[in-house]
Structure formats: structure tokens, C-alpha cells
Amino acid sequence: MRLAILGAGAVGRSVAELAGDYGHEVVALADSTAAAVDDDGVDVPTALARKDAGDAVGAAEPEAVFEAAYDVLVEATPTTLGDAEPGFSHVRRALADDRHVVLANKGPVAERYDELRALEAESTGSIRFEATVGGAIPVLSTIEDCTPAAVTAVRGVLNGTANFILTRMAAEGLSFDHVLAEAQDLGVAEADPTFDVDGIDAALKFVILSNVLADGGFTLEDAAVDGIRDIPASALELAAEDGRTIRLIGEATREGVRVGPRLVPATGALAVTGTRNVVQIETRHAGSLHNSGRGAGGPETATAILSDVGRLPSR
């Protein structure tokens, strides 16, 4: 497949670097200011070297990616809430041109899922979005294999930053503020950690899962969300005395979405440590299925994107 990649951050650049390993070719690569476009194949190392040096990634305007001879638009721009722009418009334009779309951007899928599916129905292109939930963990493809109708609920840990903080607080008896500062120093937490520690990032992922299970109908506004800012170290100490710990757990069903701190058995499947994520899929006929792994990172998320590209029908 010929890929047009919108977004040249950690995820977009990883897709560009790894595409050839999966048998695909990059014909366009854009960040917010410029684009490299070549129907014979972009020289990815050169384009990324230019960006790393502080120069434009290419000589074209970002919108030029849509004029490239591409089969699949990879939408890897930053997630935005509400109207989910500009990601939603990028998807709409590609589908209007009967091209496939693979998303890493959670905004359009969490906030405008029904509209996306309506646009897809009018196009010969398809949309896929494994990378919006759980990084490298095959959550959506597992649900797809089971068929959504056979899945009753999905729960788990889907934010590595929050999980790292809670793990360190429990292990060392440290305060939230102390561990957050440590996480920021290590690059595990953003300078503005709001999305992660207030549960918003996890909630977006579980909204997407509820949309898949219910075939739409949910946005972030429908989710009940609590974060981890107010958890004292003493709460983790008390939980440990009872053989339990605290994790930021989300749950998606056809009825709704909940995300918040929960007590879980310290040796249970949901008590993953560090930045690892875990998902528990409840099925009607096969019991509980568990997937665990790295839920973020450029190469990890790129593997989910490129796996989605491989599942698309050839053009």
C-alpha cells in the first residue's frame, strides 16, 4: 500500500520508518507546517533528518498530501476534543476521495464516531483505528475476531503514565506530587499531565470501545471519569495490607463508560506495574480474554497502524 502520513511526531515518524518492513511505501509525509510528497516514494531518512535539524520536512504545503497517489491516509496528528478538528476533516477528505484511513488520533473516533461511520458508508474506502486503543496491544482486532456482539464488556488499565505513578507510590510510599515530578523528569509524563492523571486519555479509549460494542452513540461527555490526583500514599498502604492495590481502571459496555481509581487484587491480572497496560475482554462464550503490553510509544503504536494497513482490502 502507498501511505500518506499526516503527523510527524513520534508515531508518524515511526510509521514512516517502519513502513518498508511491512511491504508498504510512503508517498507523503507531513507535519503541521510542511510536507514531503513523491509519488515514487519519499526519501524518509532525508525528510526526517531535515525535521530534526529544524528545517521543513519537505517543500510542499501540508495539504499537498491529499494530492499524492496514496492508498491509505495515516492520521497521526494530535488528539483534540469536541469537534475533533483538524483530524475529522482529514478523514472526511480522504473518504470523499475513496481512500482508506487508519487513525492513531483518538479524537474523531471518540467524539464523532457516528459521523465517521456515515462517511465510511458513502465511500469505497474503509477506516481502521486499532492504534487509538492500547498502543501495540491488539484490543480492537481481538474484539473483531470475537465479533462485537459476543463481547459484553471491556475493562482494564489503558494509561501508562497513571499506572507508573500508582506503581511508584505503592512501592515507595511516595506522594502523588513527588512521583509525578519524577515521571516528568523521566519523560513518562508530559509537562502538562492533565490528560493522563485526570483520566481523560483513558476515558477516550474506553469511549471508543463502547462505540465499537454499541455501534456508536458515545462521546467523552457520556463518560463518568475520575483521576488519580487525590489518592494519598496512605490509601495504597492500606490497600497493600489487605492484599490489594489501586489502579486507574476503565470499563466499556453498551450502556456506558466509567474510568476511575479502583481496588484490585495485588496479584490479579489488572495489577500491571510500571507503564504497562492490560485489557480484559469479557465474552459470552469464551470467558475472559487478557491482553497486556506496551500501551504507548512511537514504534509500538506504529505496529498497530501498520497491522491495520495490512488488514485493509487492496486497491
What features would you describe in this structure?
With 315 residues, the chain is an alpha/beta fold. The chain has 2 domains: 148 residues, Rossmann fold (3-Layer(aba) Sandwich), CATH 3.40.50; 155 residues, Dihydrodipicolinate Reductase, domain 2 (2-Layer Sandwich), CATH 3.30.360.10. The strands form 2 sheets. It has a 6-stranded mixed β-sheet with strand order 3-2-1-4-5-6, sandwiched between helices. Strand 2 and strand 3 form a beta hairpin. The model has no long low-confidence stretch (mean pLDDT 95).
Properties at a glance:
Dihydrodipicolinate Reductase, domain 2, 12 helices, 6-stranded mixed beta sheet, globular, 315 residues
Secondary-structure element order, N to C: EHEEHEHEHHEHEHHHHEHEEEEH
Number of strands: 12
Helicity, as a percent range: 25-40%
Strand order of the largest sheet: 3-2-1-4-5-6
Shape: globular
- Averaged pLDDT, please? 95
The count of domains is 2
The CATH superfamily of the largest domain appears as Dihydrodipicolinate Reductase, domain 2
Low-confidence stretches: none
Radius of gyration computed on alpha carbons: 20 Å
Quickly give the CATH architecture of the largest domain. 2-Layer Sandwich
